[in-house]
Design a protein that fits this description.
Blueprint (H helix, E strand, L loop, with lengths): L34 H12 L2 H12 L7 E5 L13 E2 L1 H10 L5 H14 L2 H5 L2 H9 L16 H17 L12 H17 L9 H16 L3 H5 L2 H9 L5 E5 L9 H5 L27 E5 L11 H5 L5
Length: about 325
């Protein structure tokens, strides 16, 4: 059977239509496997992040009173809280450092969780981060700090969590748990209230611990997540995992219109178009409202591109 071609105005056969070439800002035919569906799921989750945080909060508060303190949780949540389900990984590392022991369970937990999720844990599951998010809803102008200030978290991790306990034991006033604001809020304050209601002498925590808690909560009104971005040692660990985690953010340069919307969308001062999986990023997914950015796994990328976590670090230009 021979296909018929309609004649042109000059009497000859009409020319075949030229193939359409994607113009600037147009998606090319080759896409990441399931990119449309994953983008919709990411958008759905991003709009409901606080509800996910509430669900994780209910888990960490141990509604069934299991008290699994021999197991490390992956979030910044003091085990001395009357309703804490798991042990705090930073508290375990600090106390093991004081005993000159290696915390295999805590380090193993953080390596596995960080290797899969990175700072998704900070943005979606951490109860102390959730508290700062709620305080940030106070309608005042927020300010940002230079990116280099985030390196103070590593000074806290090395100095107060590892070196001070190792050299001076947990009795030193700079031992991390003696200054921890989460410990003050979740452990010391409930203990003070409980003792006061029972008519006993109030066990006051150290003034430094209460002062740090007050400063962090006050600062959260004017800067989003000040503890997370400046001082959190757990955030420092997960931040290092952002560039190698199996779940991450991907920037498609071919879809970028250079409008700067992704930078305006980020509430934490990260520049997604320049350094998407930065250690300061908590992966709140606000930037994924830009068409050029999406959350993906290392296994849902173009077949002819880089493989594994390295693909998430690369720019998708083709």
């Amino acid at each position: 059977m021979v296909a018929m071609t309609a004649p042109s105005a000059e009497g000859g056969p009409a020319p075949s239509p030229a193939p359409m070439t994607p113009g600037p800002g147009m998606e090319r035919p080759r896409q990441s496997m399931g990119s449309t569906g994953s983008k919709g799921l990411v958008s759905f989750l991003a709009r409901r992040r606080q509800w996910v945080q509430v669900c994780f909060l209910l888990v960490w508060l141990d509604p069934f009173l299991l008290r699994l303190h021999s197991v490390c949780g992956p979030v910044f949540h003091c085990y001395s809280c009357p309703m804490a389900l798991f042990a705090c990984p930073i508290g375990v590392i600090a106390n093991f450092s004081a005993l000159h022991l290696f915390p295999f369970l805590a380090i193993g937990t953080l390596m596995v969780v960080g290797g899969v999720f990175g700072t998704f844990v900070c943005g979606w599951a951490c109860p102390f981060g959730f508290l700062q998010d709620l305080i940030a809803k106070v309608p005042v102008r927020k300010f940002t700090l230079p990116a280099w200030t985030g390196y103070t978290r590593y000074a806290v991790l090395v100095g107060l969590v590892i070196v001070v306990p190792y050299l001076y034991t947990e009795m030193h006033p700079l031992f991390f748990c003696r200054l921890c604001p989460a410990g003050a809020l979740e452990g010391a304050v409930p203990n003070m209230v409980k003792t006061a209601l029972a008519g006993g002498a109030i066990p006051w925590p150290s003034p430094a611990k209460l002062a740090i808690l007050g400063l962090v909560l006050a600062a959260a009104v004017f800067k989003r997540r000040p503890w997370c971005s400046l001082l959190c040692p757990l955030g420092a660990i997960f931040g290092l995992c952002n560039r190698v985690s199996l779940l991450g953010l991907r920037y498609r340069e071919r879809l970028c219109r250079d409008c700067g919307s992704c930078e305006k969308l980020c509430p934490y001062g990260v520049l997604p178009s320049q350094d998407l999986n930065h250690s300061r990023c908590i992966r709140c997914l606000e930037c994924t409202r830009c068409n050029a950015i999406t959350a993906e796994t290392a296994f849902t990328l173009p077949a002819d591109g880089p493989k594994g976590p390295a693909a998430l670090r690369s720019r998708d230009t083709g």
